[in-house]
Specification:
Distance between the termini: 31 Å
Number of helices: 3
Radius of gyration: 13 Å
Largest sheet: 3 strands, antiparallel
Order of helices and strands: EHHEEH
Shape: globular
Number of domains: 1
Structural class: alpha+beta
Helix content: 40-55%
Number of strands: 3
Strand order of the largest sheet: 1-3-2
Strand content: 5-15%
Length: 71
């Protein structure tokens, strides 16, 4: 029987991948992130792009679709 690998709780993705995973445009993703204060600035050579945890992406998806983010 195959086991599904567990993700690290603090694992995350950059804003480009987050936009693809959520189906949001990069502009919309940044707008939602700013409004909700989700995501963290990555201090790397990528110009301070945002990074998101998978939990934050889940919340952003629910907010973008109008679903109750508490469920």
């Amino acid at each position: 029987m195959k086991t599904v690998p567990q993700l690290e709780p603090d694992a995350g993705v950059d804003e480009q991948r987050a936009a693809v995973l959520t189906g949001l445009s990069l502009v919309r993703l940044r707008e939602l992130a700013r409004q909700t204060r989700l995501g963290r600035r990555a201090d790397d050579r990528a110009g301070g792009r945002l990074r998101f945890t998978y939990q934050e992406l889940h919340l952003l998806c629910r907010l973008a679709t109008g679903a109750d983010p508490q469920r």
